[in-house]
């Protein structure tokens, strides 16, 4: 079982109900994970707002640094792509926009996704809709519109849609629960249509908990590590389902997995 392998390979104390752990060095070595999709190149666009950007993480990498290490340890070349750069990791491209609601994230994706044609898009968006109380009952509609357009703009993409993580503000948390129910319905509908989509459940026992939050909204480093593991697990699920395919060649966008890949930026 993939989860059991991850637990054995990365034995750090980030385990809940069999969840994989974050990678770490032991005795100067790193155990390798199996490659996903026979080691195909992963051109990954992390898409969202401040959590995607990595706000409140000590190195600015958020979940991206740990996730990239997990993927490359198995032999997958990884190029993180996006119009922004944030964090200490060399390959720190990201499409994360602090404070943005779903529609604003969608607007940014409209230009960035066609430019890079990612074959993996990690979507975590909607927390700001909740904090701003923006048409909560229609958040799922807005997310669906964005996801459908992402598939149209990058037909080889596998999208991982995450539920929103917990919020320590009780009023906002009630909205988060509402939005997450909508997202689960959106994900089920898209999967039923045969879209390459996986849902990553991050609002639960395996996701960030109250102790893993730096403030009401953003994870601390431990919380981001948990998110990284859940993204990885979702990609492993996509692999088992045969959803991951090679990225579309784009002039000037390398996929050889070097440490610093700026796409066409």
Automatic annotation (TrEMBL):
Region described as Disordered: spans on this chain: 246-265
Q: Which InterPro entries does the UniProt record give?
A: Ester_Hydrolysis_Enzymes (IPR051532), SGNH_hydro (IPR013830), SGNH_hydro_sf (IPR036514)
Which GO molecular function terms does the record list?
A: phosphatidylcholine lysophospholipase activity
Q: Where is the SGNH hydrolase-type esterase domain?
A: 47-225
Provide the alphabetized UniProt keywords: Signal
A Pfam family it matches: Lipase_GDSL_2
Q: Show which residues constitute the signal peptide.
A: 1-17
Coiled-coil segments: none
What this protein is called in its record is Carbohydrate esterase family 3 protein
């Amino acid at each position: 079982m993939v989860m059991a392998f991850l637990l054995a390979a990365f034995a750090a104390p980030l385990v809940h109900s069999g969840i994989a752990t974050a990678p770490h060095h032991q005795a100067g070595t790193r155990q390798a994970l199996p490659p996903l999709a026979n080691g195909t190149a992963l051109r990954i666009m992390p898409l969202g707002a401040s959590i995607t950007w990595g706000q409140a993480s000590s190195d600015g990498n958020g979940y991206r640094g740990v996730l990239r290490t997990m993927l490359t340890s198995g032999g997958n070349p990884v190029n993180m792509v996006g119009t922004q750069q944030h964090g200490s990791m060399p390959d720190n491209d990201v499409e994360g926009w602090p404070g943005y609601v779903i529609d604003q994230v969608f607007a940014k994706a409209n230009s960035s996704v066609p430019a890079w044609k990612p074959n993996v898009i990690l979507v975590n968006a909607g927390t700001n809709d909740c904090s701003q109380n923006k048409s909560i009952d229609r958040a799922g509609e807005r997310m669906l519109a964005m996801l459908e357009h992402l598939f149209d703009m990058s037909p080889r993409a596998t999208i991982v849609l995450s539920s929103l993580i917990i919020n320590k503000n009780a009023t906002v948390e009630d909205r988060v629960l509402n939005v997450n129910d909508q997202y689960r319905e959106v994900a089920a509908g898209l999967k039923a249509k045969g879209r390459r989509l996986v849902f990553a459940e991050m609002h639960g026992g395996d996701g960030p908990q109250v102790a893993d939050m730096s403030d009401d909204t953003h994870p601390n480093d431990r919380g981001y590590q948990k998110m990284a593991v859940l993204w990885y697990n979702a990609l492993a699920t996509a692999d088992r389902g045969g959803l991951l395919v090679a990225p579309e060649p784009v002039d000037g966008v390398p996929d050889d997995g070097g440490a610093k890949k700026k796409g066409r930026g």
